[in-house]
Amino acid sequence: MSERGLELAQEKMRSAGVAPAAVDVFTRFYGLLEEGASGYVREDDVEPLTDLPRAADLDVDDAAAADALGRTALIKLNGGLGTSMGMDQAKSLLEVRRSAAGEPLSFLDVIVGQVRAARRATGARLPLVLMNSFRTQDDTLAALSGYDDLVVEGLPLDFLQNREPKLLAESLEPVEWPADPSLEWCPPGHGDLYPALHAGGVVRALLDAGFRYACVSNSDNLGATPDARIAAWFAGTGAPYAAEMCLKTPADVKGGQLVVRRSDGRIIQRETAQTHPDDVDVSLDPQRHRYFHTNNLWFDLEALAAELDRTGGVLELPLIRNSKTVDPTNADSPEVVQIESAMGAAVAVFEGATAIEVDRERFLPVKTTNDLLLLRSDVYELTDDYRLVARVDAPLVQLSKTYKTISGFDARFPAGPPSLRGAAGLTVEGDWTFGADVVVEGDAALSAPEQGTGTVPDGAKVTADGIG
Fold first, then answer.
1. Average pLDDT by consecutive 10-residue portion of the chain (468 residues)?
2. Of 341, 362, 383, which residue sits at a domain end?
3. 353 lies in the same domain as 387
4. β-strand 72-78 against 213-218: which pairing, if any?
5. Quick one: which of 197, 132, 122, 189 has its CA closest to 160?
6. Overall number of domains in the chain
7. What residues are paired with 321 via a beta bridge?
8. What Cα–Cα distance (Å) separates residue 300 from each residue in 76, 216, 223, 231, 241?
9. By three-state DSSP, how is residue 69 classified?
10. Residue 71 and residue 176 in one domain
């Protein structure tokens, strides 16, 4: 490893028009990578986070809640392509529900519905601002072009996430992949929020337009609806930053968590990739670490603007080293390193940062087709204000790899999802195609069909004993 790799990467980024702040962030992380930094947060160095205030216990005056939401902007991270589900466009364009009239609704359609409903209920202007990537921007803006009431005057509808070169694992030089040059690039993780906001002047534009707070969340988490009560709580704390946390369940085997650093008592974030293999079991233990991070964040825009101005957008976030292949669909393609960071790690940057425990309904991410089946099913109801409300406890769904891609998934549920309201769990092994009006009951399971593929007939019941 030498200066050559960094110089080549810097030149590639500058030639592509990447923002100077993003080049500076990359340079800092590259130095940490060369030094062999793992980014691990060891269990011996932290204590669990305890005794958080609960959103369910908030006693907020309606007028105060409306006032706080009136000073709040909604920022959605929308740079993901859903590659783990075989997609090549913005994941937020994926159909997640059907309207009462049977029309398909994407994540973006539901988000717009939530924003419009909150505006009607409170009178808030409530801007929606998306952080797109270079691979999601065009499709996303085209999909939103039909919503002529969405843009708030004087504010952008989106700003662009930065990009950085993937690095060959052996040399840390930028990879070259002539078969598809776009695969030579990767997003820098959602920690790129900060240099991207700085480069786009978004925080200053929001402040100039009269907004004081921002709620940031992922576009694939439809639980992160505009919430006036939490906005009022955050405004009342005077904190520069707050994170929403949920109590763990058996399904929560991934995701970040907040911990308290023993050396100085500061709250810091530990992502899954920052958990040492020897610490994984204890990090997942709900008796020790009760909460996981929803990736829903609240910012005081004045505090955020001051920090971005002070650092030039280069917040000192921990490194996350992510090893992959240059073509994620080709395991034989060269091994690369992607330099990433987590936006939630900024909790350690802001003095006085805090957190709040929220109900599970504010965390409904779709990372796999298992999650998608649940959200499309009758476990959830789409209300008039476009909230997804669970009518029963969500069962644990585990589908075989046959269902991993969205094309494979949709082909095996041609008539839509089965009823899951009476299910405690659903495990599907092998390749089954589901007919119409299938009902799943109890802790249901389907073993791999003997003939290689199988069909669940129309109107069938699936139970622990298989097809009834």
1. 85 95 94 81 93 95 95 96 85 94 95 97 97 93 96 95 94 96 91 93 97 98 98 97 90 78 90 87 89 95 96 88 89 94 91 94 95 97 96 95 96 97 97 98 96 96 94
2. 362
3. no
4. parallel
5. 132
6. 2
7. 339
8. 16, 11, 22, 11, 6
9. helix
10. yes
110: which residues sit within 8 A by CB, 6+ positions away? 96, 97, 222, 382, 386, 388
316 contact partners, CB below 8 Å, separation of at least 6: 28, 349
Both 137 and 251 in one domain: the answer is: yes
Contact of 30 with 339, CB cutoff 8 Å: yes
State which residues form the domain around 441: 369-467
**Rounded to an integer, what distance in angstroms lies between the CA atom of residue 151 and that of residue 149?**
6
Alpha carbon separation from 117 to 64, 121, 215, 290, 385 (Å, rounded): 18, 6, 17, 33, 5
Amino acid, res. 207: L
- The pLDDT of residue 84: 82
Cβ atoms within 10 A of the Cβ of 136, count? 26
Cβ contacts of 245 within 8 Å, gap of 6 or more: 49, 52, 258, 291, 292, 293, 294, 355, 356, 357, 358
Q: Which residues pair with 431 in a beta bridge?
A: 453
Percentages helix, strand, coil for the chain (3-state, rounded to 5) are: 35, 25, 40
- Please name the residue that has the structure tokens 């829903």: 296
Q: Which two tokens stand for residue 354?
A: 């805090």
Alpha-carbon span 195 to 274, nearest angstrom = 22
Q: How many CB atoms lie within 10 A of CB 239?
A: 20
DSSP 89: S
pLDDT at 69: 98
Task: Using alpha carbons, list the distances in angstroms from residue 243 to 215, 226, 306, 341, 428.
Answer: 10, 15, 19, 16, 35
Q: Which residues 6+ apart lie within 8 Å of 2 measured at CB?
A: none
- Which DSSP symbol is given to 405? S
pLDDT of the residue at 1? 46
Closest CA to 211 of 151, 149, 127, 122: 127
Whole-angstrom Cα distance, residue 34 to residue 224? 37
Report the distance separating Cα 33 and Cα 287, nearest Å.
Answer: 34
